[in-house]
Design goal:
alpha/beta, eight-stranded mixed beta sheet, 23% strand, Carbamate kinase, 9 helices, two-stranded antiparallel ribbon
Length: 299
């Protein structure tokens, strides 16, 4: 195919704009939480895979952490089991945990690995149970009950939080030129499996690895002000102010708290990226404009 001069100049401009970022981030670790529309739309899946593979080819170390809530819900429905939630967390009994492991560690993880490998990547799938990558503890909730003298403990089953992460297997894969793809299932001291929120796993992994960037793909444009405009660059203190005045609320809060914890622990920056945009990852990393919100400890 012959390019006209204008198209060729545009390509050259994009490449020259990307070059400083490629030099700056060579050898750096990027943790990318993959989910939402980017995981279900075929065009977005392809562009995501090419983005991750290109990052690896130019010397970066991308690590993918994925969710799979809709896929878990679909399989539970097919099995005649209704999904139940408490404060956004899936109530996970033993039978549901079996489905979670089947979907996250099997179907979704292998699909992503295959997707990356079909785009000339060298991806390897893991769950947090492999090589004791993610040590988990049971997540419990309490709430006040006027009829009781002490807070009521709410048990939501095999739902966990990250207790510790052993990055030995991640280091081995990175040094071998592989792209780790991680399903957010951890194991407790008692040998029990735990379903963990993928954003939380990505955040903790970025902290332990001292990652240059944590990227959270979402189905929103980023953090919005009260007028609906995207806020492209925020400090941790500015984010706290936006929470306090009600600008940030609801479903965005867990991601924001994850971002604040990550930058406080030394992660270079957290990007909340619009995964509905093709090549969102590359646009956010390699261009001056970006397609989301960058949160740093200080701006």
């Amino acid at each position: 195919m012959t390019l006209n001069t204008s198209a060729a100049v545009n390509i050259a401009h994009v490449l020259t704009e990307a070059l400083p970022y490629i030099k700056r981030f060579a050898g750096k670790t990027f943790v990318v939480k993959y989910g939402g529309n980017a995981m279900t739309d075929e065009a977005l899946k392809s562009s995501f895979a090419r983005d991750i593979v290109l990052m690896k080819l130019v010397g970066m170390n991308p690590i993918v952490v994925h969710g799979g809530g809709p896929q878990i819900g679909n399989l539970l429905n097919r099995l005649g089991k209704q999904s139940e939630f408490f404060e956004g967390m899936r109530i996970t009994d033993s039978e549901t945990m079996d489905v979670v492991q089947m979907v996250l560690g099997g179907l979704v993880n292998t699909d992503i690995v295959t997707l990356l490998n079909n785009h000339d990547g060298r991806a390897v799938g893991l769950t947090g149970k492999d090589a004791q990558l993610i040590r988990a503890r049971k997540l419990t909730f309490t709430r006040n009950n006027p009829e009781m003298n002490v807070p009521e403990i709410i048990d939501i089953g095999h739902v966990g939080e990250v207790e510790s992460i052993d990055i030995a297997v991640i280091d081995t894969l990175i040094k071998g030129g592989f792209i780790p793809v991680i399903a957010p299932v951890g194991v407790g001291e008692d040998g029990q499996s735990y379903n963990i929120n993928a954003d939380l796993v990505a955040g903790k992994l970025a902290e332990v690895l001292k990652a240059e960037k944590l990227m959270l793909l979402t189905n929103t444009s980023g953090v919005l002000n009260k007028q609906g405009d995207v806020l492209t660059g925020l400090s941790a203190s500015q984010v706290q102010d936006l929470i306090a005045d009600g600008t940030i609320y609801g479903g965005m809060l867990p991601k924001i708290r994850c971002a604040l914890e990550a930058v406080a622990a030394g992660v270079g920056g957290v990007h909340i990226v619009d995964g509905r945009v093709e090549h969102a990852v590359l646009l956010e990393i390699f261009t001056d404009a970006g397609v989301g919100t960058l949160i740093r400890q200080a701006v």
